[in-house]
Design a protein that fits this description.
By secondary structure, the protein is of the alpha+beta class. The protein has helices spanning about 15-40, 45-65, 135-150; strands at about 5-10, 70-75, 80-85, 90-95, 100-105, 115-120, 125. The chain has three helices and seven strands, in the order βααββββββα. α1 (about 15-40) packs antiparallel against α2. The protein is elongated and about 75 Å long. The relative contact order is 0.15.
């Protein structure tokens, strides 16, 4: 492996666990205070709904915080394209022969859905950058297309 290009991508997760806990606690205090006042005025059925809302909010925050541990590493060598995808502790790896790999950016079938960036070869494909926004995904597609080249073409990695 003389030449290698490593591209690491991860979702933009600016919410820290401490900030999420503070946000959740403050929203719970406000929600239960309002529900408590309403319950004192005879509208007690509001309390279970306030609890349910906070349960759903806590679940959504947990899912959002879990994304912090997702990442993808793309290793381009003279011969191979290796994609390592991490979902927390779980790691998936797929390798393609660089000479036969193809970068494809597919438009979404539905207008508001995101595009899909894939690296494909010999009937196998791997989606890359599913957590990126459209602009970042297009930029990554351009960088990968220049680095990998078209099928049966392998441009030098030093110019990437």
């Amino acid at each position: 492996m003389n030449n290698a290009l490593i591209i690491r991508i991860a979702p933009n997760c600016s919410l820290r666990p401490q900030s999420a806990a503070l946000f959740f606690a403050s929203i719970c205090c406000v929600s239960f205070a309002i529900a408590g006042v309403m319950a004192l005025h005879g509208m007690w059925p509001i309390l279970p709904f306030a609890g349910l809302e906070m349960l759903v909010l806590g679940w959504a925050l947990r899912i959002s915080l879990r994304r912090r541990h997702h990442s993808q590493t793309i290793l381009l060598t003279d011969d191979q394209v290796r994609i390592e995808t991490r979902y927390g502790e779980r790691v998936e790896q797929i390798e393609f022969t660089r000479h036969w790999a193809r970068v494809t950016l597919r438009r979404a079938d539905i207008r508001l859905h995101p595009s899909r960036l894939t690296i494909e070869s010999h009937g196998r494909s791997c989606e890359v950058g599913g957590f990126l926004n459209e602009e970042e995904r297009r930029a990554l597609a351009g960088q990968l297309a220049r680095s990998i080249g078209r099928v049966a073409e392998s441009p030098p990695l030093s110019s990437a």
